[in-house]
From TrEMBL:
InterPro entries: MoaB/Mog-like_dom_sf, MoaB/Mog_dom, MoCF_biosynth_CS, MPT_Adenylyltrnsfr/MoaC-Rel. It comes from Oceanidesulfovibrio indonesiensis. Its EC number is 2.7.7.75. This is Molybdopterin adenylyltransferase. SUPFAM superfamilies: Molybdenum cofactor biosynthesis proteins.
Amino acid sequence: MDLAPNVHAVPGVFAKVLRAVPPGRLDLVARKAGWSLAWITLSDSCAAGRKEDASGPVIEDLVRGTLPVGHAEGFLLPDDETRLRALVMDLALSQRFDVIVTTGGTGLAPTDRTPEALNPILEKRLPGMVQAMIASSLAKTPHGALTRSVAGTLGRSIVLSLPGSPKAVRENLDAVLPALGHGLDKLHGDATPCATP
C-alpha cells in the first residue's frame, strides 16, 4: 500500500524488554499496555507533501490526553475512497488497532468520500457518537449541519471520521472522548453492567 513519505505501517507485535534474560533462557510474555491508535489524514496536498498535516497530530494529542495509549501511528492519504477503505480494513482486521480516527473527506466537495469508504465496512453503527459530534459542531456554527461524519465498529476497533480542520477535530473529539474508553472496554469483552451513577 502506498503511503506518504515518512509515514509507515509496522505490522506485528511490539515488545518492550522489562528485564535482562540470563543466557540460555528465553522467557517472553506478551502484554498489552494501553490502547492502540491509528489516525488517517485525508488530504491531496498533505499526502503530496505540499502542506503540513495539522489535524492528525491533534487527534493523537487529544486521545492520549484522555486514554492510556500504548502505541499511536499516523497515515497520510490522498482523497481516495478505495485506498481509505483498504487501509482502515487492514488497520482494524489485520493490525488490530483499537481506535481508528480519520480526518477529512466528510463534507460536500466532489472529492469528499470518507462516508462512502467507511459505511460499507462498519459492522455496528454508533449513532450516539455522530449525534454528539454534530451537536458540538452546531453549538459553534450552523455549518455543522453539513457534516457527514460516521462512527462505528469494525472487528474490535472503533472507527470515527472527523472533519478536516484542526478546530473541528478538537470540537468533535471533545464531544465523544468521555465515552470512548467505556466503548472500547465493552467492545473488548467487559461484561460489567453499565450502571448509571
